[in-house]
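Researcher: I've been going back and forth with a colleague about how Cobalamin biosynthesis protein CbiX might be arranged in three dimensions. Neither of us has a model we trust, so I'd like an independent prediction. The organism is Acidithiobacillus sulfurivorans, in case that matters for your notes. Sequence below.
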Amino acid sequence: MTEVQFLLAHGSRNPQWRKPFEQIAEKLQSAHPERQIVLCYLEMWEPSLDQALHSAYASGLRRFRISPLFWSSGRHLQEDLPALLEQVQATLPNCFIRVEGPIGESEIVIQAALQALQ
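Model: Here is an independent structure prediction for Cobalamin biosynthesis protein CbiX. You can compare it with whatever you and your colleague have in mind.
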């Protein structure tokens, strides 16, 4: 069964803020054309995660992987995201949603940041 990978970014009023996330989504999709990659936002931009999940569900997909493009796990990932997903799962029966840890907590990202800061 096909799994959709949602790259979840926070959102910002500044449209330039989106560029790195759009590049990540484009490069990941190019590297993995067999996967469906969807960039979505927690707030301020569209598609929102809620919209993206409902759209994928409407197209017949039921397996969803959420990859937060956050530096760490704060209130948004500890409280807001679980509350949103609880609401979504109540309206989308028989779907499976897997949430990964924030990208900033992965060792490879920490090492890349250290190298960039040298």
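Researcher: What would you highlight for our discussion?
Model: I'd start with this: The helical segments are 19-31, 49-58, 75-91, 107-117. After that, consider the following. The chain has a mean pLDDT of 94.
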